[in-house]
Prior knowledge:
single chain; alpha/beta; Rossmann fold; 7-stranded mixed sheet; 5 helices
Amino acid sequence: MRIISGHYRGMRIKRVKDRETRETADMVREAVFNMLGPxxxxxLDLFAGSGAYGLEALSRGASTVHLVDSSRTAVKTIIExxxxxxxxxxxxxxxNDYRDFLKRLKEDTMFDIVFIDPPYDLGVYxxxxxRLLPYLAKDARLVLESRKQQVFDxxxxxxxxxxxxxxxxxxxxxxxxx
Length: 178
């Protein structure tokens, strides 16, 4: 795996070495960032795995990145990747379940971009979206990665479906806060 574009372009990062973590291919990650366009502000990678989405966002202009995963192996990999890129001053790493992480956020925390790529079988997309709402900046964008068959409709949460594409067996859905 590598960082595709930006300041850290071409730098190799490590994959999580376990069977539970499903890494997003470089090609799909590149397509996601092409859909997003310019990157800035505070980024949350909630089911971070290796941290690839968040670190790519940092490379492309995010000011701060929060990488959260409940897996000890994933967090170890994130720490290694942050060290490889030498970005520990602008990255926070948390070994937390998403509910615990969101419960502990300060009231004034606001995210501009959030990546949500949980294990597909968890079925937590709606719960995550509801819990995230108070922490979304105006015009925040949320990137959901899911099975191709999974179709979302979160308009009832005042979120607009901005873009949606499928890549092989994955569906990428981008919502924007109105």
